[in-house]
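Hi F.,

I've been meaning to write this up properly since the lab meeting, where we talked about keeping a consistent format for the predictions we share between groups. The idea is simple: the sequence comes first, exactly as it goes in, then the structure tokens exactly as they come out, then a line or two of notes. No screenshots and no reformatting. I'm using this chain as the first example so we have something concrete to point to.
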Amino acid sequence: MINWALAAALILSALPCRADTIAIVGATVIHPERDLPAAVAPNSTVIIKGNRIERVGPASSTPVLKGATRIDGRGKWVVPGLIDAHVHFFQSGNLYMRPDVADFNAVVPYAKEVERNKARLDATFKVWLASGVTSVVDIGGPFWNFEMRDAALASAAAPRVAVAGPLISMIERAKLDLGDPPIIKIGSPDEARALVGRELERKPDFIKVWFIHQPGDELAAQEAIVRATGDAAHAGGVRLAVHATELVVAKASLRAGADFLVHSVEDEPIDDEFLALAKKNRALYCPTLFVVMGYRYALSNTWQPTEAERRLADPQILAAMRDLDQLPQDKLPERVAKAMANPPQPKPSPIALQNLRKVWDAGIPVAMGTDAGNIGTLHGPSVFREMQIMTQAGLTPLQVLRSATTNGAKAVGQDVGSLRPGKLADVVILDADPLADVQNLSRIHRVIKDGKLFAPEELIRSISAKGGT
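Output, unedited:
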């Protein structure tokens, strides 16, 4: 009688060793692009060779080659690397990065904070990876954003980064201008085309418009600026992203060629015209539901870290979030003093939640994004706040995961977002079932980015609370 187990062992022992191979054996693999029950594959093995996924299949019939790094996947869940489709590296998430909103220059000069933030990039990259986020879209910042992208590309311990340059804006933000402003006011289509030309020289992944429509503004004139921006971007092979939070502004943006709406429509329910325009453009929709709440918590001194933030956020930024406890009253910006005297009770916008569900049900791709870097929305673990709020719109954990993987890949523009053979090897191994509770996405055992293996706790330990990294 043939001993099949022994025969199989002999065959495997004869196969060549692969030191560049990782095998996750016996895990439950989640395929977020599929619907249930096909999305869940128990007792599976994932083989990664180099920086690509080589094979995904049943553990019983997927051989592991001798010499591979073997990870016991029993009791683990495997998902694609998460993607945050809306971040800003020129901001840190602490109190001092937006003097145009709350001016703390008397406490920490904005120029000093910018330099600290730039020196801290390696740490910021690490908290993204520690949070299971292997790709991000920085959707607007100073021209040094392109240097940040180069730094991320040069570092193994960094997410993949897509970028936009300075925001083409309808309004000025002089307090943010230190010679390389993140936001530049544009007054005509010609000015827009000129700025797009400067940005295209740096090969951006997006061109971004900050479409702020105020009482008395002529919408048609603003739409013409957005259209000129979009036409110039598209001629250069680059997509157009637009910040548009009102329905009339969002529809104007889509008419002007927007490919990516990076905020929710918050003022009124979306209508059939909006849905038709978004489908025509094949546009992406990024809700960014928590960011306004983050400002309100932080500036009223009621911000508290979540359990995931205590484990995974930059310890230097966490410490700074308590600075209002020590600041004297005469050092507080007026709006902060008022907020602290009468703290708000932030809640997600009901209209934004309603619109998110309408957009999803209409088949328009929703990409999860946090607007991280804004005050109170920390780089890295803020994704878990955002995804929890998305479930309040009625999205299932599987749908939320799809928004943060398969759909996020549409924004980042790289070969990621699923666990198919041939895809780039960006993978997260979890200690708990993400389809039972989206917060289980923070229960990270290991992260694999570009075929390289990371332990979240080691990434955080490598970050010094005092130095740059």
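Notes:
Residues 219-235 form the longest helix (17 residues).
Confidence is low (pLDDT under 50) at residues 1-18.

If this format works for you, I'll send the rest the same way.

G.
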